[in-house]
Queue: 2 jobs
Job 1
Amino acid sequence: MKNIKVLGSGCTKCTKTAELIEKLATELGVEAMVQKETDVQVIMAYGVMRTPAVVIDEELVHSGSIPTQADVTGWLQP
Amino acid sequence: MFEIFTRLADWLVYHLAGLSADTRMGQALHFFVEDTVKIFVLLVVMIYLIALLRASLNVERVRDFLAGKHRGAGYLMGAGFGAVTPFCSCSSIPVFLGFTSAGIPVGITMAFLLTSPLINEVAVLLLLSLLGWKFTAVYILVGMAVGIAGGFFLDAIKAERWLQSFAAKALERGKQSGPVSSASASTLSMAERHQFARDETLEIFGRVWKWVIIGVGLGAALHGFVPDGWIEANLGDGQWWTVPAAVALGIPLYSNATGVIPVMESLITNGLPIGTTLAFCMSTVAASFPEFILLKQVMQWRLLAILFAMLLFAFTLIGWIFNFLFPVL
């Protein structure tokens, strides 16, 4: 079970990122809990300056754009 | 070089659509077609070329560069990077906190954030194509000056006193731990640069095209439907009160530089003095209520009020100075 956080202030790109990850997780049959994190203090704690950013199991894997399908697939598959 | 766009508009509006060049409708439509096509073509070409050049520049590298810099040079560089570094305005809060927690003074961070919406490649490009290089140079100088002077002022009054407490603590920690360097200076291959530039062009164009249409549409309406000479007759002398009035009108209106520059062109060609125009447009672009609501997360009301008053004052002053100087020049 992967714990995935999408960091961002709630702009459309962040919503799209979260949707993309959820969609691909379902398609790949990976159990994942995707949550959106909008609290600026939490975003700061991860050292993120460009949103949307993606954190998987407490590790920052991406920052600054909507990730590509290939990126997301890479993170989800073991 | 830009004549081709005039001819294209001639052909589309007067020939194909059959409108007369003597009617207001024909003139307004001609203006609209010529400017939109010209701007779209220039945007795609120039965004791509500029993105190729700055592919390796991002906010992380700017932060590492600014951290630990001497204050005097810091304001200038903060404003300079604000002009050239791309970032989405939805990232301004994370950027503020990222800079702050690296120990960068609030003034330098704000020099960066104030200059950023005012000057960017799209704005410069539009100014160059619509209003010429002299006006563009003036605009860039004034935009940088607002960022630098604003940053200097905020540090002079010790604005960090009025940050929200968690941001103030982050600043203290950052100052003690000294500069960090986390972003690796990676070199990019030409293929990676092309990939970045292509994505960037699609991204920026996708974001600004509607602003161009709105801006040029408003400009065209002004061009075609405000009676010739009305603006010049009523506001052309640059009466002192017109500048604060323009700023007061501009602040609640929100637009980005892309939407407002075609309106600027129209106002200037209709005889509105340059200072009044600058004051109106800069206040529309730099100060917006949504932005201020966002900043509330990291600043106390008091600092927000100071920032707001500072911008009002700065734009009014700019307007007066230019109205005073330009008729003389």
Job 2
Amino acid sequence: MNQNKQAALAAVEKKAPLVADVADSVWEYAELSLQEERSCAKYCAVLAQEGFTVEKGICGIPTAFSAAYGSGRPVIGLLAEYDALSGLSQKAESLTREERIPGGCGHGCGHNLLGAGAFAAALGVKAYLEKSGVSGTVVLYGCPGEEGGAAKAFMARENLWRALDAALTWHPDDVNEVVTGSSNSCIQTQYHFTGVAAHAAGDPDRGRSALDAVELMNLGVQFLREHMSDKARVHYAITDAGGRSPNVVQPRSSVLCIWCGPTMWRRR
Amino acid sequence: MVRSNHVAEAVALQARVDDIARGAALMTETTYKKQFIDALADTVPNHALETVLYRNFEALGVPAHTADEHAYANALAATYPGSDALPGIGAGYDAAIAETVRSLRAAAGGAMNDFLVPLYQGEAFQPGSTDVGDVSWQCPTGQIHVASWPNGCPGHSWQNVSCDRTEIGHKAAVHAGKVLAGAVIDLLEDPALLAAARAEFEKQTAAGYTCPIPPDAVPVVPD
């Protein structure tokens, strides 16, 4: 390992208290997907302080950011996430289920650490670029809404990632390893049906049932399942069945569909 | 090997379901509105980057834990089922790696997997989905896991939340920072590494990326 690299990794170690502070702050904020205002603000403030050129709200997503250091090519991206999950508020370092805030959110996927680790990497690369004078740019991307919202896919729609020579990231887990293999592709779409309400016994001829439409749609999808790739999946949830009154023709009903795309890798 | 464009297949499948919705509305004399929620692509692995990451991980080792941290992790592991599961992606696909991991776990002796799983680059699939997939269709992308939780700790659990604000978590974040920074530095110093990653990427994504996000969609705050 050359001296400049060694110095860069030592710089990461030196910043360990700052990395822990960022991780703990984001853990406490515990903000849901695409609502990570405080977490995003924390990163933007700390990164500006550390000498990065920060741009908040990239690709029209308010809680996304980029923080760049260096100049010229290659351009390497590091991916940070910082969204939490609902219903998972929990006291730290506890050995029993104890909510910190009743009904609150919690970092049940370790994204407080994920973002902080990517941030730590950016600090290390910056230290290296400063010392070595080598050409290159490191960009830390703040990617909100990983648990829901798929911000990185929205950013891909703007072709953001095509400008990079490579992107690296990590995820907390129970093991130390290099990740390989694939994961599912997914599309989530909600269908909202609208009919006409009417007394189900007195004026049924004047009603048009949105719930019937949802049932017919689900039946149609059920028949579709025989005629699609056997690796694809269509899942559904009826998110609105039109209310609690059987004596009213349901004027509205909604079904949420998730397509999980065919993937070529299969567990043996 | 050229990957087929799976996300394009998902988009095509959705168009067929749209037709079913139209049919259901026609049959019931109702109307419907389609609301796009979100979408993401499958992940394209990049072995060239994986190798660079592994070399750095090997050189830096894994986070070391104190007796107190081990005691906490062991006690936390007693609160969920499956704490004796065999960890790591490679162990699920490769018998030799599974055997190695089994002995590494036995040697570790506790709930924290304080060892590095040997490099595995065969077929693998991670259940679930992530929008890192969309990045991986637009540029060579590499990822690591760093032990931040005791063995077998369930995803999206209170145990994760509890453990994510401990010294174990902090050490994992700092260590991930070092391994990733080390890999980036190698990429900056040796253009051949990036060229290899690019060549592999071009081959793997020759089918082209279909962004699953419609042109007019805006990010939706999930319910």
